[in-house]
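Q: Given only this backbone (114 positions), what sequence would you predict?
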């Protein structure tokens, strides 16, 4: 059974940075495009960044230029570097395949507040 384990969240001031990491167990990682999603209180989960097997990336307009997604196919991990964080980035962050085909993990809480 594939498991997703997100880590790296925390409390940060506006303008600060965090790096999230997602470990993917199982053998499916190398054949799937991956994504980072987030869900803010009272809102639907949204896709914020994706990365293909070959490393091509795409971002939601709200995070473009501030977030960078990367993957390590040897370690089965996908990271999200978040810079210039804003209060509206506050959410629980999750990873999954680009089509969200896996059971969701616990996520990692990111809180941006002064």
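A: Predicted residues:
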């Amino acid at each position: 059974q594939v498991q997703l384990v997100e880590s790296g969240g925390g409390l940060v001031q506006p303008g600060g940075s965090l790096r999230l990491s997602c470990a993917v167990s199982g053998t499916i990682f190398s054949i799937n495009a991956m994504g980072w999603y987030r869900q803010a209180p009272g809102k639907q989960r949204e896709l914020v960044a994706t990365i293909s097997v070959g490393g091509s990336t795409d971002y939601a307009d709200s995070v473009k230029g501030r977030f960078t997604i990367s993957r390590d196919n040897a370690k089965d991990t996908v990271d999200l570097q978040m810079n210039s964080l804003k209060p509206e980035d506050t959410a629980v962050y999750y990873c999954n395949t680009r089509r969200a085909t896996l059971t969701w993990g616990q996520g990692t809480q990111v809180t941006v507040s002064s």
